């Protein structure tokens, strides 16, 4: 375009010509695109009114060239950036989905662990309490036949309690402080419970008092552990 100086930023669909006070004619164009809109302007220095030379105008072909060049420029600049942003967003979303799935999987297994630990401890306390009750009955019973039946029931309760103790110990983490404390209380409770199964005469009241205190301490520690683990499940922590 002879006699024209063209500066292109972002292009457009309509042209507005303005005759400036300094004798410069400017053509402004605005292109309908998704990119930020900035005027494209083309200008030419023209003589003042005293000069009879004809002012040159931008032809439709010239304007179309400007528009096409501007569209190509916008596409070249924004295309890779938009693609990179989309890929980055998709990668972030996929990472969040994978993380959430891993947390949900761990939470489900932890909930199963909580249920199993609670059931084992509850069964242990039930069987040892039964064992203590049978031992009291054994000492006041006069019939040898009934004492033999009580001894059989006591043996069954004792064996079930031992299985619960082993399962409970296997569920605990020996490196965690609360679990270590619970295992210490569990061993003390087990040692006291075994006295109810001994065939020798014992002071049942003294053992029963110790048994009740140890059982209460064991239950309190178990409640603390279960509450902590449940909070981890609720908060979705691994």
List the helices and strands and how they pair.
Blueprint: E1 5-7, E2 14-19, E3 24-30, E4 40-45, H1 60-140, H2 144-171, H3 177-194, H4 204-235
Antiparallel strand pairs: 1-4, 2-3, 3-4
Helix pairs in contact: 1-2, 1-4, 2-3, 3-4
Briefly summarize what is shown:
The chain is of the alpha+beta class.
Describe this structure as you would to a colleague.
With 238 residues, the protein is an alpha+beta fold. It folds into 2 domains: 5-88, no CATH class; 95-235, Four Helix Bundle (Hemerythrin (Met), subunit A), CATH 1.20.120.340. The chain contains 4 helices and 4 strands. The protein has a 4-stranded antiparallel beta sheet with strand order 1-4-3-2, with no helix packed on it. Strand 2 (14-19) and strand 3 (24-30) form a beta hairpin. Helix 1 (60-140) runs antiparallel to helix 2 and helix 3 packs antiparallel against helix 4. The longest helix has 81 residues, at 60-140. 14% of the residues are buried.
